[in-house]
Amino acid sequence: MKTMHQSKTKEKQTMAERANTLRAGVLGANDGILTVVGVLFSVAAATTNQFTIFIAGLSDLLACAFSMASGEYASVSSQKDTEKAVVAAESRLLETDLAGEKQAVTDYYVARGVTAETAGKIADQLLHEDALGTVIRVKYGLKKDHYMNPWYAAFASLVSAASGGIFPLFAMTVAPVAWQWPATILAVILSVSLTGYLSAKLGNGLVKNAMIRNVIVGIITMIIHYGIGQLM
After folding, report:
1. Cα separation of 26 and 157, whole Å?
2. Is 141 helix (H, G, I), strand (E, B) or coil?
3. CB atoms inside a 10 Å sphere around CB 100
């Protein structure tokens, strides 16, 4: 019975990590698309030299990818440190204020419609089986011995940002010169629509709103950077 419970817990933890990695991946792809197309439009509006445009876009793609990866690593590492601190604090409270911790668990179940007497019995049983795991779950929604891996999130951001940036870079530098502008605009609109769709699905949001919002941001980004390039 215990082995089956551990197996289920491990499966849920893996799903949580995958969800976090996917989130970092979608955000990284969106940033990669917008930052690279911003540089491409600024440079292409100022010069027609295809090699210069390519190098500028490629340099920004790499810079964006590593910047996103380092930022995601720092963010998830900070979250991990905070969760560890919370677990350590609750571990101390279990030793110094067991009654208070039991009351917190009892209140948790009372708030969910269980009678105070039954909630107290549930709290006693759960604290007997796994005191620390129970307390951090009901008070903070955490799982014992499970912390997000910052390396997974960082790698997802690195790969996705680079992958997202490839769309406008490829369109601008591979399409025939006469078609490079419309090809890039189309590539950006399609790619940010995709990231908007994925972000809405992962966050249980409105797909249509997310896609429209991303397209509008993409168009504004292109207009602004094109204007900057014209001033150069």
Report:
1. 8
2. coil
3. 10
Write down the pTM of the prediction.
0.71
DSSP 178: G
- Which two tokens mark 193? 């629509």
DSSP one-letter code for 47: -
Three-state DSSP state, 175: coil
* Tokens representing residue 91 in the block: 């571990």
Please state, in angstroms and rounded to a whole number, the distance separating the CA atoms of residues 189 and 168.
10
Helices vs strands, H then E, count in the chain = 7, 0
Cα–Cα distance for residue pair 67/166, rounded to 1 Å: 16
Please name which of 173, 139, 227 lies closest in space to residue 52, comparing C-alpha atoms.
Answer: 173
Q: Whole-angstrom Cα distance, residue 214 to residue 218?
A: 6
Query: Which 3 state secondary structure label does DSSP give 114?
Result: coil
- SS3 for 48-66, per residue? CCHHHHHHHHHHHHHHHHH
Q: Most distant CA pair in the chain: distance in Å?
A: 78
The H-assigned helical ranges of 145-231 are 150-174, 180-203, 207-231
pLDDT tens digits for the chain (232 residues)? 344 344 443 444 445 566 666 777 788 888 899 999 999 999 998 888 999 999 999 999 999 999 988 988 998 899 889 888 999 999 899 999 989 998 999 999 999 888 989 988 999 899 888 989 889 988 888 888 777 778 888 888 899 889 999 999 999 989 888 899 999 999 999 999 998 888 888 777 788 898 999 999 999 999 998 888 887 6
For residue 142, the surrounding DSSP H or E stretch is none
